[in-house]
Amino acid sequence: MEKVHHRSFLRVTKKDEASLPVKALVIAIAIFCALLVSALFIFFVTKLDPISVYVSMFKGAFGTKRRAWITIRDACLLLLISLSLAPAFRMRFWNCGAEGQILLGGLSTAALMIYFGNKVPTPLLLLVMMIASMLSGAIWAFLPAYFKAKYDTNETLFTLMMNYVGIQLIEFFVDFWDKKQSHSVGIINMNGQGGWFPPVFGQQYTLNILIVLVVTVFIYVYMKYSKHGYEGAVVGESVATAKYAGINVPKVIRNNVLLSGAISGLAGFVEVSGISHTISNNTAGGRGFTAIIVCWLAKFNPFAMALISLFIVFLSKGAAQISSDFGLNEFASQIITGIILFFILSSDFFNNYKVSFNHNRKEGR
Question: Domains, the chain, ranges and CATH?
Answer without folding.
Answer: 49-327 (1.10.3470.10)
